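Subject: for your reference before the review

Hello V.,

The reviewers asked for a structural picture of the protein, and I figured it would be easier to keep everything in one thread rather than splitting it across files. Below is the amino acid sequence we used in the manuscript, unchanged from the supplementary table.
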Amino acid sequence: MHSDKRKFYFTLLISSLLFVFTLSCQENSNPLAPPNNDKLTSFFERLTDSLIVNSKVPGLIAAVWAPDQNLAWIKAKGKSNIATGEVMKDDMKFRMGSVTKTFTYTVLLQLVDSGKVSLEDKITKFLPAYTKWNDITIRMICNHSSGIYNYTDKSPTLAGPVKANPMKIWQQQELVDIAYPEPLYFIPGSAHHYSNTNTIIAGMIIEKITGNILPYELKKRILEPLKLYNTAYPADNFMWGNYSHGYSWGENETPLPDVTEVFNPSYAGYAGALISDIYDLKTWVQALVKGLLISSSLQTERLNTISSGEISGYGLGIANLGITNGKKIWGHAGTIFGFKTLAYYWPEKNITFILMFNNTSYDPTILLLEFYDKTIKFVEGKL
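And here is what came back from the structure prediction:
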């Protein structure tokens, strides 16, 4: 009998607790509801609308993916073709410029993983003709601490020769040979200076080791495994499929010239010639930052950065930006005639930022940092 009473009171207690729990859930308006991101997306809209109205950028594509915050904001604004009035679309292809570097260096790091090359190997082990650079290592060309002259800094700038002979097919060694007679910026390993020449050298070393051209290695090692079907290394000056036009040679021209297919991108070569779209770049920058294609130990080294400015650091073919209270987004920026691109990923919060402008007169980094700052406030509940 006492046992029956105990069972009765125990059942009553459980029922009461369940009732209280159910009531508390009803009073708390759906605690599992996703956060309201209207303020954040409204900010994105105003900022990009203002840019189209108040700058010389004909069109842009901007995207912020934050699945843990119930956010996928993807917008194309302005014109993709000034002459025809065609509007920008989010699936359009574009030239990605120096975001190409992240692909080239990843292949080189894969060769490090396989034991074909060491980060401490001298570049002259593979390119013995450049004897003046016999103290420069693979690591130094990856993090731009080599001091090697940037061939695109050559005065007059390379835009002059490219505009004078836009269809010229530049051999990669020819680009390195522009830099070779120039003095080093500093003692190798002592500082940082971003140099396109470093990445051209990286591509040449890949070819020396594998016996294949770099575009083949990129396709086999990155594009096919990650199913990046809208990304390719161009064989000539033409774009393909659905693409945005790009405007300006990087000068203050009026009216803006359409330079989409009027030059051969081999002048940017292994440092900047790839074509892609925002969806492929989303897949790519996440794989890049997560280290999906190289070993975890090498990825740790890759993300070990050296100072490259007040707001950024540079690792082995990857940059970080927006360092605020220890928070970092990782990826790369790119510029080539007619286009500017940014692809960054915030791994701690699983947030991806992609921006493309079809004009080179405005720096999208400013916009990215605004996006990032507001996204931090949103995630932290301060917006």
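For the response letter, the relevant points are probably these. The chain has one domain: 39-379. The chain is about 35% helix and 15% strand.

Happy to draft the paragraph if you're swamped.

O.
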